[in-house]
Amino acid sequence: MWKLKIAEGGSPWLRTTNNHVGRQFWEFDPNLGTPEELAAVEEARKSFRENRFAKKHSSDLLMRLQFSRESLSRPVLPQVNIKDGDDVTEKMVETTLKRGVDFYSTIQASDGHWAGDYGGPMFLLPGLIITLSITGALNTVLSEQHKAEMRRYLHNHQANKHYLPINEDGGWGLHIEGPSTMFGSVLNYVTLRLLGEGPNDGDGAMEIGRDWILNHGGATNITSWGKMWLSVLGAFEWSGNNPLPPEIWLLPYILPIHPGRMWCHCRMVYLPMSYLYGKRFVGPITSTVLSLRKELFTVPYHEVDWNEARNLCAKEDLYYPHPLVQDILWASLHKIVEPVLTRWPGANLREKALRTTLEHIHYEDENTRYICIGPVNKVLNMLCCWVEDPNSEAFKLHLPRIHDYLWVAEDGMKMQGYNGSQLWDTSFAVQAVLATNLVEEYGPVLKKAHSYVKNSQVSEDCPGDLSYWYRHISKGAWPFSTADHGWPISDCTAEGLKAALLLSKVPKEIVGEPVDTKRLYDAVNVIISLQNADGGFATYELTRSYPWLELINPAETFGDIVIDYPYVECTSAAIQALVAFRKLYPGHRKKEVDECIEKAVKFIESIQESDGSWYGSWAVCFTYGTWFGVKGLEAAGKTLKNSPTVAKACEFLLSKQLPSGGWGESYLSCQDKVYSNLEGNRSHVVNTAWALLSLIGAGQVEVDQKPLHRAARYLINAQMESGDFPQQEIMGVFNRNCMITYAAYRNIFPIWALGEYRSKVLLQQGE
């Protein structure tokens, strides 16, 4: 039976700054579990399998089942159900809140954070399995149980035409809810083969997947990232790739195209890719690799036109088509520059570039304790370390951190989009529980969460000359996940600061000692340092180059990835945090704080869409962006009565409210940049909570409360018998086009919204 372990090391090769606080990994124990517990797990798996085409998202039940067994849960209060036409009473809301927090407290981890599924993308696990296969570490790192769960996951998320309408297929998508793509289909087919599946195994699933690939032109039509992965495996030729010259790292930083000016996720992925490309590294050619060369292409492997393949991409994958200037650039590099750099004396420059990229790879590894900024560069960096020296300490230090990225749910084992969302979810959870005004009742929950917030703040900048390593300051920041990960992020720092400030106002006898004032000052320093000239905030760093750099974005699947753009979410979070800080510490850097807030407010107002919404870049989508837009302006004292911007936002939200009283927004909004309802106009508890929070914050309570009552009724009726809320469609997104799971959102935001509704709508009515 699988068991989630919290804040544990377990390997002499693991490094940590804070005794592994926040670390989460799954371990298989064959002796664990009663017959009843094992039966409950199998029932969850069976139910998902049978309903996987109607509901593609797991409910994260294995973690919930485990934590509910281990916790001292309270008796479950009676479920509330409100009929149409009945009033929502304060007692009903209080009961719903207690049921919600009672349940949510049972799945709080021992170190204070909330763990949860952060999967969704379908291209992450293949990179790991390809890397482990090449390095010979597959059977060392992964047990048979790991591999079985991974196969379960890949089969569960295959679009199988035996079960779907005739227009459906047998491929895999970019993410769990997306249509089949060549990128997803080829890489996941290859992954199953490397995990031991034969070409005709899986009750026909492999054959169906291969048919999709061949019927759509074969693997030559895979995206550039897919071409790279197949090339290192040996199932594709490097000559079929557009160049990724490592020499770009030797250019002067003053040039706008220098990788140090790119969005950190972009540059940290292309850093190891350029090393592997520069080396033209190819792993061992095994019998499976030779077989894949026959299985993946529509013509014999030796007849593939690799030069033509460089620019081929299946139409199903083409979210960001190459502009003409990019095709000219790649052709010039391929035909003119590369031949020079691969022969003497140009080869000397190539060797220098490879040494430079490797130096930056090691710096990233060492300063994230070998977690790395994300799963793609994690496995690429690990592969680069092995290519440099298969017996190196660096490679050995990478191996145990693989488990930080793996998550098990009833749909199987997946690779997550980060090493978790621990700090992000916990900061929101603190604000949600505090919004209930049930502080004393849930003091122990808040005290544990407070401990996690304190233990997760980054205490030092990265070592050395930050400008040389293209790094921003990080001392005082909060990361998205854990202190060991350590990358500073603007909105995570803001949400961490908000949580710390709110908890500092609660008696320490209830929630523990507050965060030291100096550490709060450090956080404010990070936030102020991240404001761009236009007033907006990007994610990890300042915006360092120009939007036209997107012209050289080679990733056909993703949009807006080359530079770190300013976002409404990051800017709003910064405003809210600084306003909260200013109220408690009005004298600290007053002029700078005031100016920062003022500029940020103007930025948010300037990027509002013509319909009154804001586009959300990190969750679905206009309801999420509008929540941040409104809350940022609310913090600055603006409401629908004194701000046309806020009034317009309210009009937008009210226009999207559904007959059920809720809101339900599809991920299609993200990729199409046009508001789209969920299929069948279904409501979603998370979208509804964001909309309700926005309207309450904007002052809708003083204008017309009926929409608020309708939304609250929907949320109350959506609550499950256990006090949990249902997992519905996927709600997270990145790079416009790829969806990602936030399993905690279904709990956090309904609790938060109903808490605000109770205190700012119902209780104010009674006064």
TrEMBL record:
Keywords: Isomerase, Repeat. Gene3D superfamilies: 1.50.10.20. SUPFAM superfamilies: Terpenoid cyclases/Protein prenyltransferases. InterPro entries: SQ_cyclase_C (IPR032696), SQ_cyclase_N (IPR032697), Squalene_cyclase (IPR018333), Terpene_synthase_CS (IPR002365), Terpenoid_cyclase/PrenylTrfase (IPR008930). Residues 100-407 form the Squalene cyclase N-terminal domain. GO terms for biological process: triterpenoid biosynthetic process. One of its GO terms (cellular component) is lipid droplet. Its EC number is 5.4.99.-. Residues 421-758 form the Squalene cyclase C-terminal domain. GO terms for molecular function: cycloartenol synthase activity. Belongs to the terpene cyclase/mutase family. This is Terpene cyclase/mutase family member. It comes from Brassica campestris (Field mustard). The lineage of its organism: Eukaryota, Viridiplantae, Streptophyta, Embryophyta, Tracheophyta.
